[in-house]
């Protein structure tokens, strides 16, 4: 008897009416069904299956850490993101960069810091909140004194102030778009580097909560559709702003629980969209935090409220490129560093879904280091960074 | 945030068409640019996440860095930033500079709108292009072509998040345009009743109108109709729950409860139907004796969902079940006493 895929996986019933949505959905289900079938027949003679091909992924990440192929030109304004995605993936895989390699990444990120505060998408570009978040997180993951010291906290504060709008929301950059990512990125870097002030985030929570939609998830701005990435940002921002009481947790929980796919086991980003490996993080990260919230309200003994085993099976069986290394969106897609980071980040969340008891699918060596579901920074690196910045001198606010 | 990656997937290649490459002259070989000293990218001594730029890419951006530094805002620089944006439309620094040039040269904004339309048609999922369009339309203060434009983009992908977000901005900033939006949405829902973006837009329209009881009643009937056709469509069920947020003193709950009960009694076991029935019980805080049967029914639904109809969410349904027991102070032995 195969212990995997033990819980029945139900395919979507199109109720005899095919639409574009259901056609696309059935196509993905058919592809994944084949993978599940071939996995089950292999697993019968392989007690170790499914395996996380850690070394292949480490090789993939290290290959991309220094040089990237031409098709990454479109991410030329997201280079601190590349550093963060790679550093986070390595930290989860418990793989350290050498002292020299660390120092090289730090020196590159310092080149991305703008003289007026914040970080840019690359050297000689303008500062932007997304690479600022990515650079600060990457530096925390590197975790050396040299890395922490790169961040000019006073200028960073000035940069955040310059992006704040009167209603408490933030722009991503000068003249840039304003959405819930911006509040999340600002709150994260402010908390991490210990420059958070109530004034900076006055009424931000009130703005963020307007992004929670009738479905229960959050959209990018008030009115738009609930979406996994923005839901993570909105929910986590409320936590960082100490305003989680404003969230309709019950409807959020219902929405996010329903984003786990009945057949695939992975998560979709929006209602009636397709599974994507990256939502293994954006969606699954909500669960441990909600559990903790309900626990602290002393409501009841808590357990994990999603199928963390099915999620791990999706990742291990459907999202690995065994040959080149790297992780993917769904079968048939090529690996990339974004998916490598978020699929691993989600896998770690699922492996640590229940405290003090193993819920690792496959062999025990599949386990990744524990991830923090609010910052998406490997937990020990995060604690070390928070500790470091809690000892830094207060900056001059004005 | 996933869209960033979609950019990566869709925007990555296709620039070095053979024919293009043959006719293209690098900036460093153009006599009219002889006066400009290109600036190479300064990554520092270390090689980290270094992209293997094509010659064309390095050349264009070397010259872009030079003009960014000198502050030159001229017609030739407008051409240069156009090339830079073709190579990487996600470079927000170039977009910021383009806007400064356009303002400085007093470029005809209608031409600029046409330009950004073409860029968006090629790169539909990119934050920068939509933000730039918004800025141009604000400067023109003329939204007359915007609904048609977004409709075109949505015709290619009816769930394009950026296009919907932009469309909502247009409708909010220029409120007169809202009149026909319900027809537009209705049309999309008819094409694909599972298009959640269209349902969300419907909610947006209703929310921005005067959502009085008549309107909500009409919307309930509309949704009931769609659910009768596709009872397992989560989009319609979520919309239905959304409508109940307008229900004051429970005036719409009975209607929804009746609809759901009928469907259930006919044998329908849509997980969303069962979920809705559970929530309607949960929301009912009256403690009359009849309630015990209702609670038992809700608990049975939870158990059926966990074991048969929705096993992937079994932990969730166990939680909901425990939550109901706790809330109504209901224990298994109570049922035995009854």
Automatic annotation (TrEMBL), chain A:
SUPFAM superfamilies associated with the record: Terpenoid cyclases/Protein prenyltransferases
GO MF assignments: protein farnesyltransferase activity; zinc ion binding
Any Pfam family hit: Prenyltrans
Enzyme class: transferase
Family annotation (InterPro entries): FTB, PGGT1B-like, Prenyltrans, Terpenoid_cyclase/PrenylTrfase
Protein task: Catalyzes the transfer of a farnesyl moiety from farnesyl diphosphate to a cysteine at the fourth position from the C-terminus of several proteins. The beta subunit is responsible for peptide-binding. Essential subunit of the farnesyltransferase complex. Catalyzes the transfer of a farnesyl moiety from farnesyl diphosphate to a cysteine at the fourth position from the C-terminus of several proteins having the C-terminal sequence Cys-aliphatic-aliphatic-X.
Subunit structure: Heterodimer of FNTA and FNTB. Heterodimer of an alpha and a beta subunit.
Protein name: Protein farnesyltransferase subunit beta
Source organism (scientific name): Acyrthosiphon pisum (Pea aphid)
UniProtKB/TrEMBL annotation, chain B:
UniProt GO MF annotations: CAAX-protein geranylgeranyltransferase activity; protein farnesyltransferase activity
Gene3D superfamilies for the chain: Protein prenylyltransferase
Keyword Repeat attributed: yes
EC number assigned by the record: 2.5.1.58, 2.5.1.59
Known cofactor(s): Mg(2+)
Record's keyword terms, sorted: Magnesium, Prenyltransferase, Repeat, Transferase
Pfam families noted in UniProt: PPTA (PF01239)
A Gene Ontology cellular-component term: CAAX-protein geranylgeranyltransferase complex
Homology family: Belongs to the protein prenyltransferase subunit alpha family.
The protein, known as: Protein farnesyltransferase/geranylgeranyltransferase type-1 subunit alpha
Source organism: Acyrthosiphon pisum
Gene name of the record: ACYPI008214
């Amino acid at each position: 008897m195969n212990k995997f895929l033990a819980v029945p996986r139900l395919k979507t019933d199109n109720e005899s009416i095919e639409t574009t949505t259901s056609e696309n959905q059935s196509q993905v289900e058919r592809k994944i069904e084949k993978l599940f079938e071939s996995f089950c027949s292999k697993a019968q003679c392989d007690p170790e299956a499914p395996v996380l091909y850690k070394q292949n992924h480490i090789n993939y990440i290290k290959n991309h850490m220094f040089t990237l192929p031409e098709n990454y030109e479109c991410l030329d304004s997201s280079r601190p993101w590349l550093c963060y995605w790679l550093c986070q993936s390595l930290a989860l895989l418990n793989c350290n960069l050498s002292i020299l390699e660390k120092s090289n990444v730090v020196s590159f990120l310092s080149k991305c810091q703008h003289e007026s505060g914040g970080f840019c998408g690359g050297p000689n570009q303008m500062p932007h909140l997304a690479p600022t978040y990515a650079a600060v997180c990457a530096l925390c993951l590197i975790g050396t004194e040299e890395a922490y010291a790169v961040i000019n906290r006073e200028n960073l504060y000035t940069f955040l102030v310059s992006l704040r709008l009167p209603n408490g929301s933030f722009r991503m950059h000068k003249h840039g778009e304003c959405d819930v990512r911006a509040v999340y990125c600002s709150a994260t870097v402010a908390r991490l580097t210990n420059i958070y002030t109530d004034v900076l985030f006055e009424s931000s929570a009130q703005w963020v909560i307007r992004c929670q939609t009738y479905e229960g998830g959050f959209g990018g701005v008030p009115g738009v559709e609930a979406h996994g990435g923005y839901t993570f940002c909105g929910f986590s921002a409320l936590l960082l702003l100490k305003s989680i009481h404003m969230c309709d947790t019950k409807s959020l929980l219902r929405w996010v629980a329903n984003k786990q796919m009945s057949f695939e086991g992975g998560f979709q980003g929006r209602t009636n969209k397709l599974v994507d490996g990256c939502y293994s993080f954006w969606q699954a990260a909500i669960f441990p935090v909600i559990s903790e919230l309900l626990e602290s309200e002393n409501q009841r003994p808590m357990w994990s409220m999603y199928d963390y085993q099915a999620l791990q099976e999706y990742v291990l069986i459907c999202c690995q490129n065994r040959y080149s290394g790297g992780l993917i969106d769904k079968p048939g897609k090529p690996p990339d560093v974004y998916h490598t980071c978020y699929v691993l980040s989600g896998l770690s969340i699922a492996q640590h879904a229940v405290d003090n008891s193993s819920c690792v699918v496959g062999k025990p060596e599949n386990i990744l280091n524990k991830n923090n579901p609010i910052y998406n920074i490997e937990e020990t690196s995060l604690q070390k960074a928070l500790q470091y910045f809690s000892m830094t001198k207060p900056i001059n606010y004005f | 945030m996933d869209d960033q990656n979609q950019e990566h997937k869709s925007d990555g290649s296709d620039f070095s068409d053979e024919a293009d490459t043959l006719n293209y002259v690098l900036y460093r070989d153009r006599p009219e640019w002889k006066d400009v000293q290109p600036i190479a990218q300064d990554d520092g001594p270390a090689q980290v996440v270094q992209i293997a730029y094509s010659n064309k890419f390095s050349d264009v951006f070397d010259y872009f860095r030079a003009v960014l530094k000198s502050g030159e805002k001229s017609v030739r620089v407008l051409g240069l930033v156009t090339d830079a944006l073709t190579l990487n439309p996600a470079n927000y620094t170039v977009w910021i500079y383009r806007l400064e040039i356009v303002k400085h040269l007093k470029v005809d904004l209608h031409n600029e709108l046409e330009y950004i339309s073409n860029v968006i048609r090629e790169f539909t999922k990119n934050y920068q292009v939509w933000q730039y369009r918004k800025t141009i339309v604000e400067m023109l203060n003329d939204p007359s072509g915007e609904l048609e434009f977004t409709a075109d983009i949505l015709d290619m992908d009816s769930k394009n998040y950026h296009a919907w977000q932009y469309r909502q901005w247009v409708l909010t900033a220029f409120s007169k345009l809202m009149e026909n939006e319900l027809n537009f949405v209705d049309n999309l829902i008819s094409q694909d009743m599972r298009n959640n973006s269209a349902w969300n837009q419907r909610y947006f329209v209703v929310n921005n109108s005067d959502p009085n009881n008549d309107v909500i009643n009409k919307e309930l009937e509309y949704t009931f109709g769609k659910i009768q056709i596709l009872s397992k469509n989560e989009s319609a069920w979520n919309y239905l729950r959304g409508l109940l947020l307008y229900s004051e003193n429970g005036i719409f709950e009975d209607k929804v409860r009746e609809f759901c009960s009928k469907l259930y009694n006919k044998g329908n076991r849509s997980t969303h139907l069962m979920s809705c029935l559970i929530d309607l019980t949960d929301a009912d805080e009256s403690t009359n004796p009849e309630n015990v049967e209702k609670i038992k029914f809700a608990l049975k639904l939870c158990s059926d969902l966990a074991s048969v109809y929705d096993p992937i969410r079994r932990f969730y349904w166990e939680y909901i079940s425990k939550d109901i027991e706790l809330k109504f102070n209901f224990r298994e032995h109570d049922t035995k006493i009854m």
